[in-house]
Amino acid sequence: MAEKPVVESFQLDHTKVKAPYVRLIDEEEGPKGDVISNYDLRLVQPNEHAIPTAGLHTIEHTIAVLLRERIPGYIDCSPFGCRTGFHLLAWGRHSTEDVAKALKESLEFIASEATWEDVPGTEITSCGNYRDHSLFSAKQWCRDIVDAGISSDPFERKVV
Ligand SMILES: [Zn+2]
């Protein structure tokens, strides 16, 4: 039998990181040379905090638009099951500083300006669990994350 694939994210020592941070997980090259980058957007400290589902869900819907506007080649941003952050996928290469700045702007917008008008897909027809949203929770968590500062390095605090 072939060897089991190694999943990079499970190799990371989650006790050594200092959230909030942006980390490049890896860059993969397709058969035609296109590059896809995968980032770890860690919003809260692993095994110390977890963003409650409703707030995380609202952040997910809202940053789907905000990060798309700010990161060229944006593909997708999906929450971790542990509720401490998101995977970000994008075409091409981007510095973690640029990604951290885009994330900071997006979370700052949610914390200070966002209204329900800015949260897309909250109807029964456009979401798989439309009852489970909280802009109140999203705003408070985003405020705390922005105030803590987002680092472009997972192990050393390099706040953008
Ligand atoms: Zn949804």
UniProtKB/TrEMBL annotation:
Q: Which UniProt keywords apply?
A: Autoinducer synthesis, Iron, Lyase, Metal-binding, Quorum sensing
SUPFAM superfamilies given for it?
LuxS/MPP-like metallohydrolase
Q: Which InterPro entries match?
A: LuxS_sf (IPR037005), Metalloenz_LuxS/M16 (IPR011249), S-ribosylhomocysteinase (IPR003815)
A Pfam family cross-referenced in the UniProt record is LuxS
Residues noted as binding Fe cation in the record, renumbered to the chain: 57, 61, 127
At the top level, the lineage of the source is Bacteria
EC numbers on record = 4.4.1.21
One GO molecular-function annotation for this sequence? iron ion binding
**How is its cofactor bound, per UniProt?**
Binds 1 Fe cation per subunit.
Q: Which reaction does it catalyse?
A: S-(5-deoxy-D-ribos-5-yl)-L-homocysteine = (S)-4,5-dihydroxypentane-2,3-dione + L-homocysteine
Class of enzymatic activity (EC top level): lyase
Q: List required co-factors.
A: Fe cation
What's this protein's function? Involved in the synthesis of autoinducer 2 (AI-2) which is secreted by bacteria and is used to communicate both the cell density and the metabolic potential of the environment. The regulation of gene expression in response to changes in cell density is called quorum sensing. Catalyzes the transformation of S-ribosylhomocysteine (RHC) to homocysteine (HC) and 4,5-dihydroxy-2,3-pentadione (DPD).
Cross-referenced NCBIfam families, in alphabetical order? PRK02260.2-3, PRK02260.3-1
Q: Which family does it belong to?
A: Belongs to the LuxS family.
Q: How does it assemble?
A: Homodimer.
- According to UniProt, the name of this protein is S-ribosylhomocysteine lyase
Q: Provide the species name.
A: Bifidobacterium actinocoloniiforme DSM 22766
